[in-house]
Specification:
The chain is α+β, with helices and mostly antiparallel strands and 449 residues long. It folds into two domains: 4-304, Glycoside hydrolase, family 65, N-terminal domain (Beta-galactosidase, Chain A, domain 5), CATH 2.70.98; 319-443, no CATH class. It is built from nine helices and 21 strands. It has helices at residues 161-166, 170-174, 216-220, 278-288, 291-310, 319-339, 357-365, 372-383, 424-436; strands at 4-7, 12-15, 25-29, 34-38, 43-46, 70-78, 81-85, 98-103, 107-114, 117-124, 131-140, 146-155, 175-182, 185-192, 200-205, 211-215, 249-260, 265-275, 355-356, 395-396, 403-404. The strands form four sheets. It has a ten-stranded antiparallel sheet with strand order 1-2-8-9-10-11-18-15-14-13. The chain has a five-stranded antiparallel sheet with strand order 7-6-12-17-16. A hairpin with a 3-residue loop joins strand 8 (98-103) and strand 9 (107-114).
């Protein structure tokens, strides 16, 4: 392998070359709030449902070199102007002296070095919170003092993810951004106007911003003939402080990290989330602006995975087999149980696919020993999609709990169900009973769909 290595001591896969054959994604959070981040810092984040409440604009079919959803730029000052690069490699594509993406359990950590600057960013969603947190540490590893600005950026999708891609007239006219302040903190809020009093997206940082931008056309510059690789607005002194009334909305913050002597460091956090109102988002922002609370949330995440993995640990003569059985396979099984191919780099989370009855029945087999209570609850949910004739719906939307028959409806002269969806429930229930001894599950009455 020329792209990275397994680090079993830290339970990570470490990517050392950002130019992987395809994006390597890692899931953070849950369907309640979360999504995936790729190894170059892009992110597809949603709350509740990737189809009807998507937050970031991540278009998988675009080239791997293109900006997707989120990124970070660093800007170095000199007498000749500014030197711009992304420590995540994408989208600036400036060659990095060092690159590592640590694909961890529920988090990703990107470490890079370029132009005498070391950046260490950890990306995750704290448990039970509707907020993606990025803790970013910038260190001057050169022998000269530097002046550096950090510019984190998010691009928004319309919450109706399919409509974002099918209606280029009405959707941009609905999108709005506003700037509000919490003491010295700049908070950029965003919503389509019909969601203003229901759910608002927000983006902010723990350090003060000197300026901001919310309009993509202005951020890229030159009527969008400026590029994500080198946005023209980042070569001006400050951003434009536009509060977008319509169009393609983003959130960009100019955060002056100031004068860094050799060896000195600045750390800050960014927070991307969604709440019903401004009143409810401020406490979340204040909490995760404190680095000690970020550390506590990471420690809580670590303890979950410690407990989850501790259920089964094996030792064989083959180190690679141990690595797969003890870390990476159970991690993957938990991820597929959570997301069930509903949202991935290849399943786009658009429209009717939903969570598969057959797929999720299989997924439970891989996690029932580690999370029996969650497995039991999920089994009962899946059984609620069985019909009176014994067959089953093929998939369901996790937000609305509306079932779908899938492709079985395409041929009118054939049965309107898949032949095996309902059969997997037999294997799933019996596996659960073998693992737990909980025969009482057989006494529960689950209404037919």
């Amino acid at each position: 392998m020329k792209y990275g290595y397994f680090d079993d001591a830290n339970r990570e896969y470490v990517i050392t070359d950002p130019r992987t054959p395809t994006k390597w994604i890692n899931y953070i959070g849950t369907l309640d709030f979360g999504g995936f981040v790729d190894h170059t810092g892009g992110a597809l984040i949603c709350k509740g449902d990737p189809t009807f409440n998507r937050i970031t604009k991540y278009i998988q079919q675009m080239p791997s070199s293109e900006f997707k959803g989120e990124t970070l730029y660093l800007r170095l000052h000199s007498d000749l102007g500014f030197t711009l690069f992304s420590p995540f490699f994408v989208p600036s594509l400036v060659p990095l002296d060092k690159f590592e993406c640590h694909v961890g359990l529920g988090y990703s950590r990107i470490v890079s070095e370029c132009h005498g600057v070391r950046t260490d960013a950890i990306l995750f969603v704290p448990d039970g919170v509707s907020c993606e947190v990025r803790r970013i540490t910038v260190t001057n590893i050169s022998d000269q003092p530097i002046v550096v600005d950090a510019v984190p950026v998010v691009e928004y999708s319309h919450p109706d993810a399919l409509k974002q891609l099918t209606n280029a007239d009405w959707v941009p006219q609905t999108m709005q951004s506003r700037m509000v302040r919490d003491n010295e903190r700049t908070i950029l809020i965003q919503y389509p106007f019909m969601s203003k009093n229901i759910k608002i997206n927000y983006f902010t940082a723990s350090l003060p911003a000197s300026s901001f931008e919310t309009d993509r056309k202005i951020f890229l510059g030159e009527n969008e003939y400026g590029t994500w690789q080198s946005p023209r607005s980042l070569f001006a002194g400050q951003l434009n402080n536009t509060q977008a009334e319509r169009g393609d909305n983003l959130s960009a913050l100019m955060i002056p990290l100031g004068f860094l002597e050799p060896g000195s460091t600045r750390t800050f956090t960014t927070m991307l989330g969604q709440e019903p109102s401004l009143k409810e988002l401020v406490p979340v922002i204040r909490k995760y602006s404190e680095l000690k609370n970020v550390d506590l949330a990471l420690d809580h995440l670590k303890k979950f995975w410690e407990k989850y993995l501790s259920t089964i640990q094996v030792e064989t003569p083959d180190a690679s087999m141990n690595s797969m059985i003890n870390i990476h396979n159970p991690h993957q099984c938990y991820t597929t149980k959570q997301w069930s191919r509903y949202l991935s780099y290849y399943q786009l989370g658009l429209g009717a696919r939903g969570i598969g009855i057959r797929d999720s029945s299989q997924d439970i087999l891989g996690v029932v020993s580690s999370i029996p209570d969650q497995s039991r609850d999920f089994i009962l949910t899946l059984l609620s999609f069985q019909k009176r004739n014994g067959s089953s719906m093929h998939s369901f939307n996790p937000l609305t709990l509306e079932g779908s028959l899938g492709d079985s409806v395409e041929k009118e002269d054939r049965p309107q169900y898949y032949s095996d969806d309902h059969l997997w429930s037999v294997l799933t229930v019996t596996s659960y009973i073998k693992e737990t001894g909980d025969f009482d599950i057989l006494k529960i009455k689950v209404p037919f769909y």
